[in-house]
Amino acid sequence: MIRHLAGILWHVSGMFLLPFLLGFVAALFFEVSEVGDTLPMLIGVSLVLIFPAFVAQLLGLILKVRREWRLLREKDRLTTESALASVHRQARIVTPRGWAILFTGLWFVVCALGLKWADLSIVGVMCLMLFYSVVGVTSLMSTFMVGSFESGLRRRGSIDRQMVPAVVLQGEAAEERFIFRRVPVPPGFFLLVEDALPERLQTHSRYAVGAGARREELIVGGRLRATPRGLYRLGPAEVYYQDMLGMTRVALASVATCELKVLPRFRSLEIIEPPRSRLSTPDVLTRPHRFPTDDYFRFREYAHGDDTRRISWKLSMKFGKLQVRQPETKEISTRTVLLCLDAYLGRASVVDAAVGVEEVLDRLVETWISLAKELLDRGDKVSIVAAVRQPDGTLAIEQVLATKGGHARWQDMGARAVWQSSYEITQLLEEAGDSAHGVVVSSRFHAPPPAAFPGQSLAWVWLPPEQALGASDPTLLQTLAGTGSNALTWLFRQPFIAGADENAVLAQLRVYDYHARRLAARARLRAVARREGRRTLAALIARGDTVYRLEPGVGTHKLVGIVTGQAGGRAA
Questions:
Q1: pTM for this model (two decimals)
Q2: Residue 410, pLDDT above cutoff 80
Q3: What span, in angstroms and rounded, lies between the C-alpha atoms of 273 and 532?
Q4: Which of 8, 245, 468, 474 could serve as 478's disulfide partner, Cβ 3.0–4.6 Å?
Q5: Of 244, 251, 246, whose CA–CA distance to 61 is shortest?
Q6: Which of 233, 223, 222 is closest to 171 using CA atoms?
Q7: Which residues pair with residue 83 across a beta bridge?
Q8: Closest to 536 measured CA to CA, from 457, 449, 447
Q9: Which of 174, 149, 183, 176 is nearest to 162 (CA)?
Q10: pLDDT tens by residue, 99-145
Q11: What is the pLDDT confidence band of residue 495, given thresholds at 50, 70 and 90?
Q12: Does domain 336-472+535-563 have CATH number 3.40.50?
């Protein structure tokens, strides 16, 4: 609320009083007797130039705010906070380029007084005249432009937004399009559409159209720089009128929403089974091998009393120990498997620090759906369960029976999976019956609850969080510059095209602050991952469950068995 009040005071009165205040301060420090005789004329010209702009700004602000307050009251959303936010938004019409022109003009005036250089005063006065003239005209016209824009959209115009295509696989190209139909654009102004897309898409939407928006249909768009897995609700986009000089901007509306769904890809899985003791039986993930015949088989070390006819002498000579085949007949029994995606963070400290860990969940989701396909192809009865976003935005546990040809539904669940702190893994495993085998794909930052699994066996596919975060993060300077080779030249070059507002010092400071806070959050997350990773692994092994370590690859993910669980019995 304080921020809104300060912004209102500055935009409504501060920028109009600033020239007089700065002139008074300059008179205290500089010798201004030579211009003292012209002071009445100077004040008169200033009032003729600045006072109309102030009146236009105040009049336009009152009319626009009254209209917006009426809409908020109809929606029962008019509060003190929303009312002040509305006034602040409507009063904030000057762009960074406009502020640069104002302060440039004031700087030249101060330098002219201090150096007694008359030519500099001419430049300063021209800058101030340009600034206040544009502000006055925009403030006056904005009152009519907003009403014209709203009535034009109600009668025949529209601004639509769409993604082409709306559903893509991870890494595939997607294009964002805005469709303008008979949108009014006054002379001397551009229609500017802007929206900050989710960070993972690495794209900032910004489109400017002129008088062409008045036509029957005008389409503008651009490709997204990245399409990682997830469900993205884009918009509403902010729509502005901006003058041709880029000094002022009038907020019109927040419109145009769309959705983009990026489905996870299936990956090949290389499963390396864990070592087993004499009492251990193969777990549900162990992949059976084949003889040159059609029979399935597995190996284990020879134990006293085993049938000597099952000894594989060739393999025994290779390992130096007797190895026994079992069994030699194809298994025809169907196992019931509940495949869970564990995306539980839980602790507030981890949630706050979880910046950029979406790629970890991407790998978990890929392994999750790929395991479902692997087990289904073996003949098992597989159900997948996870806490996912629902169409209304809420979070709920969703379970789907995996069937042949139902891959699109698994991918849809994978696209809607998010990190969450509402449902623990025990709540997901409650969906299993007494005869089911549980498989949990996880990258936990803390130990799971000690509750026993009610089914036959429980296996964990665990992605170590420290390893999941990848190599060390780049330094702040490397992040800002893009690459290490450009780091030394970053301070001496403009990151955007010449004339862009993003090249301004304040804009660059905001970018600097954003990346500094993001890297600090990543450092906190890595510290938590290092501290808790080994403890989590030890807790999983201590439960007596089968544990696999997930080693992500480019095209193939590897599951390396660490320890096998109790001999086919229920997990402790």
A1: 0.79
A2: yes
A3: 25
A4: 474
A5: 251
A6: 223
A7: none
A8: 447
A9: 176
A10: 888 888 888 888 877 777 767 777 888 888 888 888 888 887 777 77
A11: low
A12: yes
